[in-house]
Design a protein that fits this description.
By secondary structure, this protein is of the alpha+beta class. 16% of the residues lie in helices and 30% in strands. The chain is globular, with a radius of gyration of 16 Å.
Length: 180
């Protein structure tokens, strides 16, 4: 992914898709990840951020994406790349939802994904730079995805995980490319 040649205009990335609630769950879009133009309220410390939302079926998570080093179009580019890796048969990928490099932060936030047949398993993770097997390099981002674990080594608790069919990522890519 070419992070140096990004045109970082302030844009709201809103991937088209029906998001209506029905009695049987959400209709239309089953996987979505997007950023809004809404900034979180907080101290004016010069750090720019926007709210984002990830949806997997009926599950939705709101997150805050730092814009201190990546712009909105870089997030969208990374999400497309992450989805395409799984569609192309890679066993592991991840959707980064907040990136700040190690020179300015202790961790980044992402959603590692694991492909098994036509099913994608998704987890949420704070990835601490000090726990990486080698010095961080954004161009080697996917090398830092650990093998899938379903039980925490720390306390033996089950790790929260969502699953979805690979087709939902194909649909996401079709919708996200319709923005270009």
């Amino acid at each position: 992914m070419d992070h140096e040649n990004c045109h970082c205009a302030k844009i709201a990335i809103d991937i088209p898709g029906q998001m209506s609630r029905t009695n049987s769950g959400y209709s239309g879009v089953m996987f979505d990840i997007r950023l809004s133009s809404d900034a979180p309220a907080g101290p004016d410390d010069g750090v720019s951020a926007v709210y984002g939302r990830l949806q997997i079926g009926e599950f939705q998570e709101t997150f805050v994406a730092s814009l201190s080093h990546w712009c909105q179009s870089q997030y969208l580019q990374q999400w497309r790349e992450a989805a395409q890796r799984l569609i192309d048969g890679e066993a592991k990928s991840a959707f980064v939802t907040s990136f700040v490099p190690p020179s300015h932060a202790l961790h980044f936030v992402w959603w590692p994904c694991y492909l098994s047949d036509e099913t994608v398993y998704v987890q949420n993770q704070l990835r601490f730079y000090e726990q990486l097997p080698s010095p961080f390099d954004v161009d080697s981002l996917y090398d830092y995805i650990e093998d899938r674990k379903t039980v925490s080594a720390d306390d033996g608790a089950l790790i929260s995980e969502w699953q979805m069919p690979l087709e939902w990522l194909r649909d996401f890519l079709r919708r996200s490319h319709s923005l270009a």
